[in-house]
Amino acid sequence: MTQSLAAARTSAGELAEIVISGDLARPARLTVPGLLAWPQHEAHVAFGCATSGVQHHRFTGPLLHDVLTAAVPAIDPSRRKDRLRFLIAVRGADGHHALLSWAEIDPDFGRAPVLLGVTLDGDPLDRVGPQLVLRQDRCGARHISGVETIQVDGGYPATGGTW
């Protein structure tokens, strides 16, 4: 974590920031208040925790797909399946990572309602940062608290090349 992001997460007066980068025409730096400008969705989740049992929470926030689409990924619009080569890496302030495929969140494919949660049980997450919420995950393994970076990678060639 960079010093400025570390300071934003610990200073009482600063807002946490999320950096969205990678194969995008419009990389972005967003805060929770900035994410509140997006259409908000709600997710009720139950996480089965090995040490404390099942935890129930309610999150609100924009869809990850909407936020990333606005960053304009380098997807070839003439090739419907070109977007299937994109991966999304998410890192939290505590070092946890999760990897998703574009196909999971795309409405034409998996249509998973993945949120960038900006409230948790009605409380704003302004200072700690948004949370990656995948209500379809049974145990919350890909739930990321304090999201600080999202990297979109389309480095898998659509045609030609080997991988």
Description:
- This protein is an alpha+beta fold and about 160 residues long.
- About 15% of the residues lie in helices and about 35% in strands.
- It has four helices and eleven strands, in the order H-E-E-H-E-E-H-E-E-H-E-E-E-E-E.
- The chain has helices at about 5-10, 30-35, 65-70, 100-105, and strands spanning about 15-20, 30, 40-50, 55-60, 85-90, 95-100, 115, 120, 125, 130-135, 145-155.
- The strands form three sheets. A five-stranded mixed beta sheet has the order 2-1-11-5-6. The chain has a four-stranded antiparallel beta sheet with strand order 3-4-8-9, with no helix packed on it.
- Strand 1 and strand 2 (about 30) form a beta hairpin.
- The protein is globular.
- The model is unreliable at about 1-10 (pLDDT under 50).
Report the C-alpha radius of gyration, rounded. 16 Å
Mean pLDDT, as a whole number?
A: 87
* Total helical elements: 4
Global outline: globular
